[in-house]
Amino acid sequence: MNTMKWLLRREFWEHKGGFVWAPLIAAIIMVVLVGGVLGYGVASGKMAADNVSIRVDGEEVHHTSIANVMTSEKRAEVASMAANNYIAVGAPIFVVLPVVAFFYCLAALYDDRRDRSILFWKSLPISDADTVLSKLVTVLVVAPMITIGVATAAALAIWFLGALAASHLGISLFGPVLTNVNFYLAPLYLVGMVPVYILWALPTAGWLLLVSSWAKSKVFLWAVGVPLITAVLLKWLEYLIAMTYQGPALNIGHAVQKVLEAILLGLIPGTWFMNAGGDLPMPTHQGVDMMTMLAYSWSTLSKPELWAGVLAGVAMIFAAIRLRRWRDEG
């Protein structure tokens, strides 16, 4: 256990820039941009409290304030939507996660062989399984948890700025939002989706670690090129079969698409929502119910393709551990 703890610390300190600073910089940029826009609106008078005009045929017939226009029911709806979905404001930060995780996995086992530091690590009483699993835990557990923390902090900061701007317009959202229990549960809903993310991301992480432990060079081309070229060849085979065989279509293209999504796109948070179709919870006047989103996420564990991907991911991780044992040529 102590060995794994120190290995995780090593991964964190060596890749702190990607896992911490990259989402943190994205969060700071978002907060500064939103704060700048709101500040400009208030300073320039474009967000004045009495800037609601009713026009008929281009002529202003009535001028009032937003606070007078917004009814108590509408104000309650806005507050409920803000409490339920303020966390969605941090969604752009999650775009950073798959990019960092993809290149981390590609370099995780390859860099040790390239600079021959693998010889030093192999001289320590650390097994290859511990090394590979520490990298897997780092990318599938530590990195998402850090991203959720940063995204939550950014969403809270942006919500606070938005609430201040609303107060400037005469609409106080602090009370109804801060007394809504969903405001505090929203980050926990995201944490509750992390186990689902781990399972859906396992095939991609396994494939990238396998390539990282096997390829002597050009790891990106091997990781992306092999699946794409295989997909093109299978589509070509499907076309030839369709030209010569008049029976039912084999639908190879659909299977190829599923495999490509599993081994190349699994690190993107929320991939299980991509093919949800009508099963995806629809937004209401009070926003999207995060509890329903969490329930749908866990319901995807009943899909056979998920467990097929998990088995393939475990097999590729096992192969990566075995390959690391023998490939130390740099």
TrEMBL record:
Alphabetized UniProt keyword annotations: Membrane, Transmembrane, Transmembrane helix
Pfam families hit by this protein: ABC2_membrane_2 (PF12679)
Signal peptide bounds: none
Source species, domain of life: Bacteria
GO terms assigned for molecular function: ABC-type transporter activity
Membrane spanning stretches: 20-43, 86-111, 132-161, 181-210, 219-237, 306-323
GO CC annotation: plasma membrane
Protein name: ABC transporter permease subunit
Annotated organism of origin: Massilia litorea
